Each structure stands twice: as structure tokens, then as C-alpha cells.
């Protein structure tokens, strides 16, 4: 399931980025950004949106049960695992090479 997360993230980001690149001026002229979000690029907002959908509190016991019985990793690892291995994320947020969110060696699938 984690591999599916990464594949879906990559496909959706590539489609998003293609649309944004082709229509950047129109996007900035037509869309009103939420207050306090104007400093983010469209790519950064994409990744923030991706992470936001997994944002929830789960207890340590719930994490344990999820690991033992579930097919998905806990939410924190679904976000950080996928994004830390995604070069476009590291580039969008200028993460230093070797940091937690931009390891020197990434798990690349395609």
C-alpha cells in the first residue's frame, strides 16, 4: 500500500505540475489564496494539501494496532515516507541533502 501511495503521489504531482506550468499566469490572476498562504508556491501548496489529508491524532495503542493488523503504515509514515523519497518535494521546500526530508539516498521506483 505504501508503494501505491508513492505512485499516486508522483502521478498526481506530475499532472498538477504540468497544468500549473502551462497556466501559471492565469492561476495567479484568477485564484485568491487563503490569507497567510501567499508565500507558498503552487508546488508547496500541493504537498501541504497532500500531507493535510493524513493529519490526525492517533494514540500509541492505535499505532500499534494499525501496524499489527492493517495494510497501511501509520499516517505520519505515509506522509514522511512518501515525501522524503520524492525529489520534487525536497526541491520545492529546499530541504538540505542529508536531512530527514531529503536523504542522500532515495527509494526511487520509476
Automatic annotation (TrEMBL):
UniProt-listed Gene3D superfamilies: Collagenase (Catalytic Domain)
Pfam family, one: Peptidase_M13
Domain Peptidase M13 C-terminal: residue ranges: 1-108
Superkingdom field: Eukaryota
GO CC aspect terms: plasma membrane
Single GO term (MF): metalloendopeptidase activity
GO BP annotations listed: protein processing
Family, as annotated: Belongs to the peptidase M13 family.
Name of this protein: Peptidase M13 C-terminal domain-containing protein
Organism: Oppiella nova
